[in-house]
Amino acid sequence: LQSASPGLAFASSPTKVLRSFDGLQAELNRPEFRFVVPDFRLNKAFDRLNALPEEKKRKVEFLCNECCWFFCPERKQCYENVSRKNLGEDCPDHVCASPKAHRGYRFSDAMRNHGFIGTQDIQNVYMPNGFRHFKIEGRSLGSAVVLEFLLYYMTKPEFQLNVREEIYLDSSLDLF
Fold first, then answer.
1. End-to-end CA distance of the chain
2. Partners of 134 in beta bridges
3. Which of 127, 135, 165, 169 measures 20 to 30 Å from 148, CA to CA?
4. Are 20 and 28 in contact (CB under 8 A)?
5. Which of 7, 38, 10, 9 is nearest to 25 (CA)?
6. Cα–Cα distance between 158 and 106 in angstroms, integer?
7. Can you state the angle between helices 157-170 and 143-154, rounded to 10 degrees?
8. What pTM was computed for the model?
9. Cα 9 to Cα 6: distance, rounded to the nearest angstrom
10. For the residues of the chain, what is the DSSP string, one character each?
């Protein structure tokens, strides 16, 4: 793939659900991947993550705001179902086993997830240890929720209200 498309950056997708550290290392060793996204349950495996060589740390891209239940045994099946639907396949919906599935995605729930990576974590833990790439989940959740992600991760707290007001008063963004 890489030789046929030398300008493209390939990523090992979170849909692979790389739950084992050995699986993560195997993907990091593949030269065709510029980025590798481990399963969010490895986000806090600091003893193993921090021991990675610098060139491998530069390839890790963490999923920060995952809302999936931390103990979900069906993560891979769920991702496969979403992928099949995105490809236009006619298949039954995956039924989520999470105790809070009925609530849908809530950023407040994601923030309580054991794998959550907040802005202070990024600044004080991950970046000082050589990690630079972070992925925000939820591009299809709707403008209002995506706005909250962007405010949280990319706007200094003291300016968040100002940005909200400008967006709300402008009315050019369909939030609701």
1. 41
2. 62
3. 127
4. no
5. 38
6. 23
7. 150
8. 0.86
9. 8
10. -TTT-TTPPEEE-GGG---SHHHHHHHHT-TTEEEE---GGGTT-HHHHTTS-HHHHTTBEEE-S--S-TT-S-HHHHHHHHHHHHTT---PPP----TTGGG---HHHHHHSTT---HHHIIIIIGGGT--EEE---TTS-HHHHHHHHHHHHS-HHHHHHHHHHHHHH--S---
Question: Any idea what the Cα angle at residue 106 is, between residues 89 and 44, rounded to 5°?
Answer: 95
pLDDT in tens, the chain (176 residues): 455 667 788 888 888 888 899 999 999 999 999 999 999 999 999 999 999 999 999 999 999 999 888 998 888 898 888 888 888 999 998 888 888 888 888 899 999 999 999 999 999 999 999 999 999 988 778 888 888 898 999 999 999 999 988 888 876 666 55
- Label residue 36 exposed, middle or buried (CB < 10 Å: 0-12, 13-18, 19+): buried
- 15 within 8 A of 135, measured Cβ to Cβ: no
Q: How far apart are CA 146 and CA 126, in angstroms?
A: 23
What is the token pair recorded at 52?
A: 């990675």
CB-based contact 40:71 (threshold 8 Å):
no
